[in-house]
């Protein structure tokens, strides 16, 4: 396993979810650049440090390894898997579990902070919301430094830092990573454009979408293809929306199946917040289980009758079907014999063949030139 060499301690780090024969590292040159800059700046003891979007805990673990001077470290992320990785990596490196205060991204970290280290996320709306929430949370003389690999660094990230924090200076590229160093200046209290909202006619739903929700401005085309073909069971079945996003699949299913018992799971805290608000608006106090989690990893075996899923094909900047395959495995474990997994997927991804490796029957429910809707029977 590669060791992450930092100015403070060598670290053994793993990604989440864990995979056998993992080829990807839990850190990159942007993490290294941020930590080197932090070490060069120095700046006192007991610094109050905020870390945003620390993918697998590399930054927080490195700062937690500093024995003298100790710093007060807060990590804020929208990823449940990232939170899991932080806890696991602290333990792997014999660092105290309480060395880092974790704040899920739907909450606002409470400063004031002397240093803010930011990994620029794939979704710039998330970055914008995080910068808006920094208003009034920076201590006098605070430093705000953001980092990304150059190939993943959009110009708009610097524009957002300048708009909400202050003038920005871009560093030279080192190992294909770059820093954006913002000098805080007084700014008027910003008004957040999030959450966004949109409405559907069929089914009739008004949907709230917090900043990091996939397709927050309108229904994604995969879900649009899926909705007309959701099962109509008309009985008290136990049904999960796996990777629920704003909850639209579960909401549409629940409207047509009033006796169903729904579980909604997503690894994004902002998605879970959106789903909760949307369920409350649509169904009031109708019982439901909505939670942030590692898919169905915590679901009891053979405890579900149906699983609905529009699986992702990326984790942060990494594209692949490993998350989808893991979801299919989780669904198979959680379903009763005879239970069904319903999915929508891009035709070219070949989910039909993958599902046949797990399930005794796979049927194509519907298709169009881009998507297929599949039903897999355990």
From TrEMBL:
Family to which this protein belongs: Belongs to the methyltransferase superfamily. RlmG family.
SUPFAM superfamilies: S-adenosyl-L-methionine-dependent methyltransferases
Xref: Pfam families: MTS (PF05175), RLMG_N (PF26049)
Function (record text): Specifically methylates the guanine in position 1835 (m2G1835) of 23S rRNA.
Localisation: Cytoplasm
Source species taxonomy: Bacteria, Pseudomonadati, Pseudomonadota, Gammaproteobacteria, Pseudomonadales
Presence of keyword Kinase: no
Domain Methyltransferase small: residue ranges: 206-375
Keywords linked to the UniProt accession: Cytoplasm, Methyltransferase, rRNA processing, S-adenosyl-L-methionine, Transferase
Top-tier EC class: transferase
Known EC number: 2.1.1.174
Main subcellular location of this protein, as a coarse class: cytoplasm
Record-given protein name: Ribosomal RNA large subunit methyltransferase G
Gene: rlmG
Every RlmG N-terminal domain range: 2-185
Assigned GO CC terms: cytoplasm
């Amino acid at each position: 396993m590669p060791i992450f060499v930092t100015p403070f301690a060598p670290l053994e780090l793993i990604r989440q979810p864990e995979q056998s024969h993992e080829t990807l590292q839990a850190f990159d040159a942007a993490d290294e650049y941020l930590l080197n800059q932090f070490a060069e700046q120095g700046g006192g003891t007991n610094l109050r440090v905020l870390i945003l979007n620390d993918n697998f805990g590399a930054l927080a673990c490195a700062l937690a390894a500093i024995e003298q001077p100790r710093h007060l470290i807060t990590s804020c992320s929208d990823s449940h898997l990232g939170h899991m990785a932080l806890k696991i990596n602290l333990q792997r490196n014999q660092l105290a579990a309480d060395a880092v205060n974790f704040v899920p991204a739907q909450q606002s970290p409470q400063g004031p902070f002397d240093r803010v280290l930011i990994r620029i996320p794939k979704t710039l709306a998330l970055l914008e919301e995080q910068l808006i929430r920094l208003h009034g949370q920076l201590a006098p003389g605070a430093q705000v430094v953001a980092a990304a690999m150059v190939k993943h660094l959009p110009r708009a990230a610097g524009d957002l830092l300048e708009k909400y924090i202050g003038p920005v200076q871009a560093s030279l590229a080192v190992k294909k990573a770059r820093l954006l160093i913002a000098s805080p200046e007084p700014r008027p209290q910003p008004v957040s454009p999030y959450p966004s909202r949109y409405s559907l006619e069929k089914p009739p739903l008004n949907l709230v979408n917090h900043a990091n929700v996939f397709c927050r401005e309108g229904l994604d085309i995969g879900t649009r293809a899926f909705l007309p073909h959701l099962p109509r069971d008309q009985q008290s079945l136990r049904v999960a929306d796996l990777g629920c996003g704003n909850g639209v699949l579960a909401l549409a299913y629940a409207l047509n199946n009033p006796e169903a018992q729904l579980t909604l799971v997503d690894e994004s805290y902002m998605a879970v917040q959106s789903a909760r608000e949307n369920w409350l608006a649509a169904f009031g106090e109708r019982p439901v289980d909505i939670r942030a989690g590692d898919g169905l990893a915590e679901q009891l075996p053979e405890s579900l009758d149906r699983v609905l899923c529009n699986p992702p094909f990326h984790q942060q900047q990494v594209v692949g079907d490993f998350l989808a395959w893991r979801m299919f495995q989780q669904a198979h474990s959680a379903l009763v014999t005879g239970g069904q997994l319903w999915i929508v997927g891009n035709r070219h991804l070949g989910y039909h063949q993958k599902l046949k490796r797990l399930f005794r029957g796979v049927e194509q429910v519907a298709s169009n030139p881009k998507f297929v809707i599949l039903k897999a029977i355990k």
